[in-house]
């Protein structure tokens, strides 16, 4: 199970489509708070977070509230003081780069 947290519905759909094609079960949410209302993210093998869903001031707290591993989709012009993630994919990203990192961080708990 991979959880996707992205504000843009098109980003959620495209990531979900690419991961589903690779055999992953996917759940997607527009923000971190919405994911807390569902138990699926707690059992996820990996969580993908688009940095557009994070506020600059407390992004470390927000990322730290998610079960690891977390893959961050990051705008290269955006800076965080500390990023607690398993990996970062810089935007604009290719779906294959995200899939490869998800496969790497999920290890044996992949699809």
Notes on the structure:
The structure is a single chain. With 111 residues, the protein is of the alpha/beta class. It has a single domain, classed as Rossmann fold (3-Layer(aba) Sandwich), CATH 3.40.50. The chain is built from four helices and five strands, in the order βαβαβαββα. It has helices spanning 9-21, 32-36, 59-64, 95-106; strands spanning 2-5, 26-29, 46-50, 70-74, 87-90. Strands 2-1-3-4-5 form a five-stranded parallel sheet. α1 (9-21) packs across α4. It is globular and about 35 Å long. The mean pLDDT is 83.
Task: Note the topology.
Layout: E1 2-5, H1 9-21, E2 26-29, H2 32-36, E3 46-50, H3 59-64, E4 70-74, E5 87-90, H4 95-106
Parallel strand pairs: 1-2, 1-3, 3-4, 4-5
Helix pairs in contact: 1-4
């Amino acid at each position: 199970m991979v959880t996707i947290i992205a504000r843009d519905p098109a980003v959620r759909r495209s990531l979900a489509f690419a991961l589903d094609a690779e055999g992953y079960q996917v759940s997607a949410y527009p923000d971190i708070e919405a994911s807390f209302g569902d138990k699926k993210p707690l059992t996820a093998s990996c969580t993908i977070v688009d940095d557009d869903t994070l506020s600059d001031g407390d992004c470390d707290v927000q990322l730290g509230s998610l079960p690891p591993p977390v893959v961050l989709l990051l705008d290269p012009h955006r800076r965080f003081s500390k990023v607690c993630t398993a990996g970062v994919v810089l935007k604009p990203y290719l779906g294959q780069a995200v899939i490869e990192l998800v496969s790497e961080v999920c290890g044996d708990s992949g699809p």
